[in-house]
Amino acid sequence: MSHVQALGYLGFGVSDLEAWRDYAMNFLGLQAVEREDGSVDLRLDEYASRIRLIPDGPDDIAYVGWEVADAAALAALKSNLEDSGIEVADGSEDLAADRYVQALITFNDLDGMRCEAYYGPRQRTEQPFQSPLGVRFKTGRQGLGHIVLNSSDAKAAEKWYIDVLGLKLSDYIYAQAPSGESLSFAFLRCNARHHSLALFQLPYPKKLQHFMLEVESVDDVGRALYRAEERKTHISLTLGRHSNDEMLSAYYQTPSGFDVEYGWGGLEVDDESWHVLTHDAPSAWGHRFQIPSM
Ligand SMILES: [Fe+2]
Q1: Ligand 1 centre from 147 Cα, in Å?
Q2: Pairing of strands 182-189, 197-200
Q3: Locate the VOC domain: which residues (predicted)?
């Protein structure tokens, strides 16, 4: 069975593009590239775009782009989707150009979230990524980072992403929501990154709970904490170390209300030696929840 290789790109529909541009460049250290259609590309490596900010949006995830190896892998994935009874469309040449890829297919997950799978992402090696803050991000074959999605049926979603997209289960975390409710997270991987996708289920207003960017230097985790203090960016979860992927990170509220996890030191997994684990706490230490001040 063909499977996706990496979390390749994300689209965010945002209500305040100005605030996002500033946040992306001057807090996260991403490179912003203006587009003719009024949207903004965010770069964090050699890829032409990793995150697209789409103006006048509902402040949630608009689409997720999953990378496959080549045209044959894309065709195999399409067959697998069709065999699973999922409606799939070939992306037009215009859409492929818009996403800076050779070709793509589009389909929805169980919650109706738009998914895209593609091959041949355009690399801008002639215009190297330049972070306004000198930050370097860990990406490459591990993809852009990870996303955590709220699902109306997390168990069904877990099965869907494993059976249909070929992701593998890394582990589970049982935790308690700040509201006191019991929470269960499933962590799924498609490369050496411990997880590219995590799924949970809670009456939460957004599909995207957070996305994670991993920096190459632990110092950039510290610098971001101090930038947050200076800019008065809300720290949603204080500095901590996750139990399962060992990420040293803090979480910050984005201008869209969902969070970004900004971390370092994430665990790398290999399929031969990995076995599924269960954790009864999300963090070895830290990651204390902080209520946003209104
Ligand atoms: Fe995370």
Answers
A1: 7
A2: antiparallel
A3: 6-120, 143-265
pLDDT at 204: 82
Whether residue 1 has pLDDT greater than 80: no
193 burial type by CB count under 10 A (0-12 exposed, 13-18 middle, 19+ buried):
buried
Domain spans of the chain, in order of start: 6-119, 140-286
Residue 45 Cα, ligand 1 centroid: separation in angstroms? 20
For residue 268, give Cα distances in angstroms to 191, 206, 208, 230, 274: 9, 29, 24, 33, 10
How far apart, in whole angstroms, are the C-alpha atoms of residue 167 and residue 183?
21
- Mean pLDDT to the nearest integer, 239-243: 98
Which chain residues have CB less than 5 Å from ligand 1, an ion?
212, 261
Per-residue pLDDT of 64-119, as tens digits, reads 999 999 999 999 999 999 999 999 999 999 999 999 999 999 999 999 999 999 99
Q: What is the CATH number of domain 140-286?
A: 3.10.180.10
Structure tokens at 159: 């099965």
Handedness of CA 178, 183, 188, 193 (dihedral sign): positive
What distance in angstroms lies between residue 290's CA and the mean position of ligand 1's atoms?
16
Angle at 169 between CA 166 and CA 174, to 5 degrees: 145
Token pair listed for 212: 């994670």
**pLDDT reported for residue 34:** 98
| CB atoms near residue 252 (< 10 Å) | 23
